[in-house]
Amino acid sequence: MTEAGVDISSARTTAGHRPRQDHSPSPRPALDAGPCDLVTVPVRQGLEAVDILRLRDGVGPVLHDGDCDTLGFLVPPGTAAGWDLPGSACTRAPARGRGSADGPPLTGGGWLVAPEAAFAAATDPAVLRAALGEAARTIEAVDRCR
Q1: 122 and 61 Cβ atoms separated by less than 8 Å
Q2: Long-range CB contacts (< 8 A, 24+ apart) of 52-55?
Q3: CB 104 within 8 A of CB 73
Q4: Which residue has the higher pLDDT, 27 or 117?
Q5: Average pLDDT in the chain
Q6: Where are the stretches annotated Disordered (predicted)?
Q7: Nearest in space to 49 (alpha carbons), one of 18, 80, 72, 26
């Protein structure tokens, strides 16, 4: 269980995905205390995207706001300059450490996926964009079936 009360530890598989057998984080570059950018999305789309990224071993650290209305994906610095995905925003996060020992880089929330539990130091922006698109299509399909 995470701070938000959402269990993200169980593994799912799809026909096109072969999960790693050990389910432990891959080696990744050390997290520095430098700045990062933050892509924020509505929580429902964000949770779907986290699942998609976890299946592909591509999720970096993810934050939730205090009310659990939005999720924030840490992405490499400079992403905000070219980010234009409707329904999301990308801003420069305050220059506070990304390691969970320092706490999240923003106040009023917490980690959904802490840096030490992530598969990458930051989520690749192109991979995140694709996952958010897939998540939006999944949500749209579910909503049509109701």
Answers
A1: yes
A2: 52/131, 52/134, 52/135, 53/119, 53/123, 53/127, 53/128, 53/131, 54/8, 54/11, 54/119, 55/12, 55/13, 55/14, 55/17, 55/19
A3: no
A4: 117
A5: 77
A6: 1-35
A7: 72
